[in-house]
Amino acid sequence: MSLENFISKAISPWMKNEGPDFDIVLSSRVRLARNISDTPFPIAASKNTLEEIIALTGSKFSRKAHRKFGELELLKMDAMKQNEKRVLVEKHLISPNLSDESKAGAVLLSEDESLSIMINEEDHFRIQVLLSGFQLTEGLKYANEIDDWLEEKIDFAFDEKRGYLTSCPTNVGTGLRASVMMHLPALVITRQMNRILPAINQLGLVVRGIYGEGSEALGNVFQVSNQMTLGKSEEDIVNDLRSVVYQLIQQERAARELLMQQSRLQIEDRVYRSYGILSYSRTMESKEATQRLSDVRLGIDLGLIDDLNGKILNELMILTQPGFLQQYAGEILSPEQRDQRRAALIRERLKLEKKA
């Protein structure tokens, strides 16, 4: 299969769009945690009970058309190969926990993969909506639509005082986790992130790496999300997050302007060095690749590189992960082979972009 065809099939269709403030906010995610009433949480439920939940969900929602998301496909974890599950993790459609630790897990996916409903992860259901750019309000609207759609046929565990009941106490209440993936290279280069992070934490928000809790912020990409789910409405939680994200957008843009005014030569050198290394390297580790891609994306957004599309960062940060590299190769690769394949894929992708 050619790289062009592989990219077309491998990248989630929703990722091909450029949403609002796409130069800084790569994507928005809204997730709702829900559990079936009078049923043990997944951590305490038997495998038979969890399999019954999958069967129930499949019979009521698999291949059933939704107004916004169309038909959903049910994928059972025990029916998938390890690398197939790894690819879903790399695309943020399922969690590593569902892939590796669930006694009986599954996921319902929409055709464009902007909706995924994890089944029997930490909770019976994790409804997740993914949108390009800065679209938290729209994400909450669509997640609530799916929540209502599920609740037409399933009774969720709910307490009048506490709200929705969840396996982890930090999710009790709305069960809402809203987050945005942000590319903040200028704030990192100007060393402002070390000052900003503690201030964000004091506002009840948390900043993590690209794969959530415990992950590193590779390629200057940060995930900013809410921590509190109890005592606030869903709208208030999203509005509070939107306000902080908006401020981060303004600060990142100001930092980019400052770099161009005071350090243009150094930024140009950094951008074009990374562009050259990505264009000609024969081997490249994942960490270096994400940093070099971040530099090139900054160069695109600053107008220093005009023959590449900004979406290339989103694409290659996913396509150069181990699961995708092995899917493209059609075989299991050693770390050294992955580094060679990563470099080759990046070179070929950059050539494709120049021809377009």
SSE blueprint:
Elements: H1 3-10, E1 25-34, H2 47-61, E2 65-66, E3 70-76, H3 82-90, H4 96-100, E4 106-110, E5 115-119, E6 125-132, H5 136-151, E7 158-159, E8 163-164, E9 176-183, H6 185-189, H7 193-202, E10 205-208, E11 221-226, H8 234-262, H9 264-280, H10 286-301, H11 311-319, H12 322-329, H13 335-355
Antiparallel strand pairs: 1-6, 1-9, 2-3, 3-4, 4-5, 5-6, 7-8, 9-11, 10-11
Helix pairs in contact: 3-12, 9-10, 10-11, 12-13
Comma- or semicolon-separated keywords:
356 residues; alpha+beta; Creatine Kinase, Chain A, domain 2; two-stranded antiparallel sheet
Q: What is the annotated CATH architecture of the domain at 1-15 and 30-159?
A: 2-Layer Sandwich
Q: Report the sheet with the most strands, covering strand number, pairing sense and barrel closure.
A: 9 strands, antiparallel
Helix content: 40-55%
Structural class of the helices, strands and pairings? alpha+beta
- For the record, what is the CATH homologous superfamily label of the domain at 1-15 and 30-159? Glutamine synthetase/guanido kinase, catalytic domain
> What's the end-to-end separation, in Å?
19 Å
Order of helices and strands: HEHEEHHEEEHEEEHHEEHHHHHH
- Rg calc: 21 Å
Strand content: 15-25%
Shape type: globular
In total, the number of strands is: 11
Largest beta sheet: strand ordering: 2-3-4-5-6-1-9-11-10
Tell me the CATH topology of the domain at 1-15 and 30-159.
Creatine Kinase, Chain A, domain 2
Low-confidence stretches: none
How many separate helices? Answer: 13
**Average predicted local confidence, pLDDT:** 91
CATH class of the domain at 1-15 and 30-159: Alpha Beta
